[in-house]
Specification:
Length: about 150
Amino acid sequence: MKKFLILLIAVFVNATELEISSDSFKFDSQKLISIFKGHVKAVKEKDEILSKEMIVYFDKKKKPIKFEAIGDVKFRFILDKNSTYKGKCDKLVYWIKKGDILLKGNAFVQKLDTNESIRGDRILLNKFTKNIKVEGGKKPINIIIKVEE
């Protein structure tokens, strides 16, 4: 178990290191998942996710394929050299290979460079294509766009 924990904390995804810290950790070898609980912090280069709980899903080769951050999620992502985003939501799901990031429940994303922001019940964005789709749910979506005159 200790060996796996050390390997997990130094997992390589796209040739960069993903470091996860938390109050507790559990690995389920049947389901191929790791569960982190309490003050979870995940860092990969300059990207950071904070949450109450995180579940990392692995393929049969024990390489991470997806993770879910659950509960009071806060994050910061750098999508390219000119775009840094921060935000929050109730649940974040990240599919590593596809680059899809789904923000669910009270989702909010702000582009720090321009102060533009999006708020909705569900926000789906892609780290590679930078496409964004927003759904309002019970409340309408709210978008703030910088306009130069």
